[in-house]
Amino acid sequence: MSGATQSVALGRPRLHVRRTTSTNDRARELAIAGAPHGTLVTAAEQTAGRGRMGRSWTAPAGSSLLMSLVLRDAPAPLPLLAAVAVCDVAGPGVQVKWPNDIVVQDGEGLRKLAGILTEGRPQQGWAVLGIGLNVALRLEDLPSELGKTAATLGLPPSAIEPTLAGLLVALERRLATSVQATLAEWRKLDALRGREVFWSANGRHLSGRAGGIDETGRLVIVPAKGPCAALDAGEVVLWAELDKR
Ligand code: BTN
What percentage of the chain reaches a pLDDT higher than 90? Predict the structure, then answer.
């Protein structure tokens, strides 16, 4: 967690609440009310934590870093940039499953250590970057189906604040680098490259080999035959993950 003592602009002002529906809800309200770039909302517990694709985000009280940042005029590949920053602090062996699930390998499958949810109004120049990172989560405290797919840093709860400090430094550093540099770093962390993936589009189930990301962050798919495709949103699944569903 190098650089955690550096002074950063992100994280000020900060609202910390013991319990809320979702830190993204609070940050969104603050953004609409004109909160400055870098405003941070953290919570010990969320009662309606949100994930991508309409899913929920579950973390027992006090077990995880739950944060949302208000960002003004953030660069377009914000979800990918944030994923790289989370990997910066989570340590070696942590990878990204396109677009921005932070994962660790578990045999042929992947376990999820952190999730990122970006929401906002680009026309009004603001975004909310929500991150949930399982710092001190005990897998046995999760509902059993989630415990099979989650990962944790396995640190004590006292590590949540230093992890936040390190993540703010990492985010600030990544926000200051070029989009090309961010994409290059992301490619080094790609957990899917070369692996067979499955996804659904227009009610059809499709498969192909993940071929990395293109210059706009889309996932390139190399099918068994025919031309390559590029996915710009959604989710893909690995063979080893299919039987966990
Ligand atoms: C995902 O993997 O689907 C994204 C999960 C994002 C969870 C974080 S926790 C803090 C912030 N508040 C929310 O309601 N969601 C994000």
Answer: 78
Show the DSSP H helices in the chain as ranges: 23-32, 78-90, 144-147, 160-175, 179-188, 239-242
* For range 144-152, the mean pLDDT: 93
Q: Residue 43 and residue 160: Cα distance in Å, rounded?
A: 11
What are the structure tokens assigned to 149, written together?
């797919």
**Domain 3-188 has what CATH class?**
alpha beta
Q: Does residue 69 surpass a pLDDT of 70?
A: yes
Q: How far is the CA of 4 from the centre of ligand 1 (A)?
A: 23
Domain ranges of the chain: 3-188, 196-244
Q: Which atom of ligand 1 is nearest to the CA of 132?
A: 9
List, for residues 107-143, the tens digit of each pLDDT value: 989 999 999 999 998 888 999 999 999 999 999 999 9
**Residue among 63, 131, 134 to mutate when testing ligand 1 (max atoms within 8 A of CB):** 131
Q: Model-level pTM? A: 0.94
Between the CA of 48 and the centroid of ligand 1 the distance, in Å, is 10
Range 196-244: architecture per CATH? Roll (2.30)
Q: Calculate the CA 130 to chain-centre distance.
A: 8
Beta strands in 98-171 (DSSP E): 101-106, 109-121, 126-133
Beta bridge mates, 119: 128
